[in-house]
Amino acid sequence: MSHSSAIDIRPFEDADEEAVAALWKQVFPNDPPWNEPSLVMAKKRAVQRDLFLVAMENGALAGTAMGGYDGHRGWIYALAIRPDLRRRGLGARLMARLESALSDLGCPKVNLQVRDGNEAVVAFYQRLGYAVEQRVSLGKPL
Prior knowledge:
Low-confidence stretches: none
Largest sheet: 5 strands, mixed
Structural class: alpha+beta
Distance between the termini: 40 Å
Order of helices and strands: EHHEEEHEH
Radius of gyration: 15 Å
CATH architecture: 3-Layer(aba) Sandwich
Number of domains: 1
């Protein structure tokens, strides 16, 4: 992403599905079966679709951000930037846009999870003002 390239951040559209699936499989190669991109996108289309953003550069997918708000807390579920476009501010721009959309919904606090050991991603979020909170994350596939 050079300074002369145009980045358009907009809501996800159905035509983005193939490119988003390819990006997620590249960026999150070890995701569990319940995070299969086609399943995630199908469910997100039905719930708060406007909190699923894509960043386009010259007509090509550059990144995605997906969040949600349940009336109590906001969540960032996934932020994915094409590896060749990282460290140029695109992730920060997507996060700011998603945080703004959550704030507009009345969301008082946003949470996110980072896989243990992914210190580079933790540092990225800390630069955006996020703090590591001492919690134990539990999960249960249904």
